[in-house]
Amino acid sequence: MTKRTWAGLLCCASLAVCCGERVQGQGVAPPPAVSSKPPVSKPPSEVDVPKPVTDPRLAAIDHAVDRALMEGRLPGCVVVVGRREGVLFRKAYGFRAYAPDPEEMTLDTVFDLASLTKPVATASSIMVLVDRGRVGLDEPAARYVPEFGRAGKGAITLRHLLTHVSGLPVETPVRDFQEGREVALGRIYDLVPRAAPGQAFVYSDVGFLVLEEVIKRVTGQDVAVFAAENVFRPLGMVETGFLPGPELRARAAVTEQRDGVWMRGQVHDPRAFYLGGVAGHAGLFSTAEDLTRYARALLAEGDTAAWSARTQLAFLAPHDVPGAIRALGWDVRSAYSGNRGEGWSPRAVGHGGYTGTVLWVDPERDWFVIVLSNRVHPEGRGNVNALAGRIGTVVAQALESGSGLGGGVGGRGVWAGIDVLRAEGFRRLRGAKVGLVTNAAGRARDGRTTVELLAQAEGVRLEALFSPEHGMGGDREGRIDGGKDAKTGLPVYSLYGRGEEGLEPSAESLASIDTLVVDLQDVGVRFYTYASTLRHAMAAAARHRVRVVVLDRPNPIDGVDVAGPVLTPVPKSFVNENALPVRHGMTLGELSLLFNAEHHMGAPLEVVTMKGWQRADYFDRTGLAWTPPSPNLRTVAQTVLYPAVGLLESTNLSVGRGTDTPFEILGAPWIDGPALASALRAAGIAGLTFRPVSFTPKTAIYAGQRCGGVRVTVSNRAAFEPARAWLGMAMTLHTLHPKEWHFADLDKMLADRTILEAMEAKRSPAEIEALWAAGLRAFKAKREKYLLYGNASTP
């Protein structure tokens, strides 16, 4: 058939759908260029054929599909949208075949899922084996398939394969597969990795062929048999499998021609075809109804028929990989995420298939979208990703429109996470037994504390409070014990208690709660401990299957600027624990997403995002009142200086603790204030002014002693760069006071001997900054994946 004939047929199919109501069952005549025999009759199904369902909120899906059909992007499709409790929208559009005979698309059409095989069959089977203790995600694949360990692949783990960071290529030549499975696998075993494990994200069919072989070696069954018995049958997916039989083939969507014969119920992928139709990367067939069962199982909150709730959390947990975020077998955020759409939560996982199939599931928002098509019919062209992305956006807009926020949120000033949660009527916490990590800085716009608001929220049971460093009042120093909250009578558990075990919620403290809410005001600096408190709380919650809800707040020193050396975490250091630069430019909500992925926590995490915050905004531009999160960050001005002056605090300098202006002054009894001020001015430290002062701290170092020093003032925030300022101040102090100042103690906070040695050698500031430049670039690239409020360069 000529291209012109196909184009006419595509147009006729599009018009048939676009003119009024759906054409299905209305006897629309096929174009003259195709035989007008009636569609093939469907054999009886093993399950009841689903009926169309249409939620009026999702009516815009019709328009999106009709336009794609009119543009010839696909011959037809089935779309399903649902939630944990059931289906909201289900509809068939267009044709499942133009040739050899025209057939309208039906809800029970069988589709070649192509690469959806990877998560639905292969990764699911691996997770069943993980759940049963038969394989370990961090075990080398060569433990199960010894031949795979050849040519330097012995360190590649199952986790590396599942997240596509194994160093294996995208694919190997088709001719390898034409010679049979053993030859194809043998050549994979002989491959030399192109990168070390974990160093590069390369979407790889090869890795899933290895995982398929792991399943076979461990169980004695190929993936088709094992998945059918241990995944599909338990989940009620009776029309899902490899090599569909005659009844399923009769209602399969046609793809392309192979050797002059139309592929119908025969795998489209050439490598899977030469492997006999069963492969770890492709070959699975299914229906929209069966995938609906699968998607609802992924949204289930407890154990499923296939695996435990704990394993499900691990299955869907985000993983930070170079240039992307992936889950085990799933996409989260990468170059392949265009078929998801906008408005989905950071916990959403999904995948697509080459033939035109898409599945996305959002455990946080509680919805899923299935778009199944044969976009390669008839000539191997078409495109479903843009349509699937548009449908995903429609779903997000429609199902989130009932949030109750109205137009007032963010209209003037910033609404923090607690303000948004309150405007929603606390619906995200309705019925929850809540533990709250917070202190006095956790407040709504009107000044009421988050403790008070949650204690009085209808349908919310506030069971316990957890305090970070500085206690519930944000006014204490040192390790503190828990106790009881005077106003609510609730138990208060200290997360800055005595001993290492006092840094995270205990099993006992979590026993009575199912949701841990975090509302802490971070300050945007790596050595402020609230990020570590968040990380430990999330890790404990993940272990005990407790949901985490982070109420986000502004980064008070802006969310654009990122600067300074990236920390190599110091073992057992609560201060120097996170691989962040000195100034990280992220909110606590964004950090929670990074921690969850970077440390493979699998925490059921939700971030209540702010409204109205712009990344370039310092706290004093938000319209929110500053409540000190700790006793020595009393003003925004002090907080702005903290990343520069605070790095000097590990030495024998006073940084103003015990005075009225902490972090705005620094000095010591052996410092000549005027001389230091003059030297610092000569150093040309951008954005800062220095003037001599003398002061007597009441507490902390040099308590009761007269100190000479300087008052530090930010004269130009745009020019001030804390890491450069710290470096300039440190180099000046080292020159003026080489004996009195304990220069080597800088490493207690810096934790980077290379930089300290360069400073000792009096290398130039530019040379020293170059030492951390590569690490900072890598962090900035990683950080982009977790930003919730626009990208880093666009305020």
UniProtKB/TrEMBL annotation:
Span list, region Disordered: 27-51
Chain ranges of the Peptidoglycan beta-N-acetylmuramidase NamZ N-terminal domain: 434-636
Pfam families noted in UniProt: Beta-lactamase, NamZ_C, NamZ_N
Residue span, Peptidoglycan beta-N-acetylmuramidase NamZ C-terminal domain: 640-789
Domain Beta-lactamase-related: 67-386
Positions with biased composition (Low complexity): 34-51
Cited Gene3D superfamilies: 3.90.1150.140, DD-peptidase/beta-lactamase superfamily, Uncharacterised protein PF07075, DUF1343
InterPro entries given in the database record: Beta-lactam-related (IPR001466), Beta-lactam/transpept-like (IPR012338), NamZ (IPR008302), NamZ_C (IPR048503), NamZ_N (IPR048502)
The protein's name: DUF1343 domain-containing protein
Biological source species: Pendulispora albinea
